[in-house]
Amino acid sequence: MIEILKRPLLTEKAMKDNEKRIYAFEVTTDCNKIQIKKAVEEMFEVKVDDVRTVRIKGKVKVRNTRKGIMRGRRPLQKKAYVTLKQGQTIEIVSGAANE
Hints:
Blueprint: E1 5-8, H1 12-17, E2 22-27, H2 33-44, E3 48-56, E4 60-65, E5 68-73, E6 77-84
Antiparallel strand pairs: 1-2, 2-6, 3-6, 4-5
């Protein structure tokens, strides 16, 4: 189950949603919402209320080299936005700054 969750997303937008009990994770592309829910509940010992997923197409990358133009594509990504039940939180990153 742990291999389903690749990493938590610690962007500014994702951290803003933490106040609403919504946490964002990058997940494997072949998993479904039921597997994501079970993985989060097992890993963080919380109760999950809702799971939303987003599939992001890989960007096409082009660069010029000595041998000519090289074209490539970044891989497909999948994100999961997990909403926890009332009163539940996940401590991904402590909000306290070094003082």
